[in-house]
Amino acid sequence: MKKILIIGGTRNMGFQLAQSLLKMGHHVTVLNRGMSEDRLPSTVHRLRADRTDPKQLKRALMGKTFDIVVDFVMFRQHEAEVVVNLLAGEIDHYIMISTGQVYLVREGITRPFKEEDYEGRIQPPPKENTFAYEEWTYGVYKRQAEDIFSEAHQEQNFPVTILRLPMVNSEHDAFRRLYSYIIRLQDGGVILIPETPTYPLRHIYGRDVVGAILKLIDTGKGIGRAYNISQDETVTIDEFLTMLGDHMNITPQIVHVKRSLLEANGFLPDCSPFSERWMSELDNTRSKQELGIEYTPLYDYLGTLVEHYTNTKVPQPVGYKRRHAELQLAQEILSSEAE
Fold first, then answer.
1. pTM exceeding the 0.90 threshold for the entire prediction
2. How many angstroms separate the CA atoms of 270 and 339, rounded?
3. How many C-beta atoms surround the C-beta of residue 50 within 10 A?
4. Dihedral, CA atoms, 190, 191, 197, 200, nearest 10 degrees?
5. Do residues 265 and 329 touch, judged by C-beta distance below 8 A?
6. Residue 142 needs a FRET pair 20 to 30 A away by CA distance; which of 95, 164, 294, 325 works?
């Protein structure tokens, strides 16, 4: 039985992790700002702080002891420095949830990305005040945080493990990205997909992320290492939608459209969230060899998620409000091609 602190913890994977840890008999505490809906049981201890404020974080943790810390919301360099200063010598294991976007800001590497691809030159930043700049910044900031922890491990033996995730498909995705496809399949209309770039998809099931974290907690393995956590299969967006449709007994009607046209109409990323340029594709070999992680087959977990979204009342994604305009554009394109 261990004392475990989850930073984040009320949404998506943190929510699932907390529930799993409780069932295993661990003492669970979550630290967050208290801004999101909290459906965790009363047996979970709550700490309130804005983790970006060092004084608030120090005050919240004062007098508390933990064996393990799982950090879902670590983002910036100074946040990592604060955590190292507060927790060095005080915990057995710190698990940072990072992102595959640490590779997407690198120069000269090819998909699927391996952990060895991390080191190297960073791409110059895109134009400011653009979506690309925001995504580039996200990858760069995550790298800066990772670098602080790696340095702390080398110099102070800080017990960090870094998990790099691609797109996470989950029952609790607050952005409802997978559901954006499901609801479009349900209405029987076409799905608009940008022609380029046609990067293959290699995502991860949320419960497999939780499983990886539980394995680290149980075994204590992976300290000082970074791991890509990703499903085994790499598929095209068309293959992905065909699998999804198969579970719904629906054949997807896919129309490939110039990306510039979809962008000009303001349909991206809503009409196809998984067609964004900033989707990483990760090689998971190291995690399987060193940690013994096994991943749920893509087809199987899609079936689980379809069942969940079919039987659960879920708010419509915001972007679905313009579905009629998507269908109108699709009709214009199909009519033009038929002439």
1. yes
2. 29
3. 14
4. -120
5. yes
6. 294
